[in-house]
Model the fold of this input.
Amino acid sequence: MRLRICAVGRLRAGPERALADDYVTRFNRTGRALGLGPLEISEIDDRKGGGMAGEAALLQRAIPAGNTVCALDERGKTMSSPEFARILGRWRDQGSNGVTFLIGGADGLDPGLREGADARLSLGKMVWPHMLARVMLCEQLYRAATILAGSPYHRA
Done:
């Protein structure tokens, strides 16, 4: 099952980009044997300045047909890493073509896009900058793969 992160904005070279790339590489290595991956990141840049509606249109076009869509949103469901791993495994086992995770821009996701998602995930009650949210999601995807693989990376 292919995974995609569609995020508004571009990560420039630096520690956030390096961390995200490292977790993507780790996920792809671990997930392959589990039927997960590859994980790719699609960066969306609204150069015309269309605001949330413009970003939503660009994000919508980046979602592959038939994918399960999970919106990252502060009003979404908070869950433990093992719960997240179980959901990812369930999507895979139910035969999802793929999963696309959406990360909005500075103002978040357009309400219509957010409400139309199959799932909404919160990384906690605090609001995170989208570049850190991307790194945190990449790490949690890698952690989920290691949990599903029975690896000792997750020690809880």
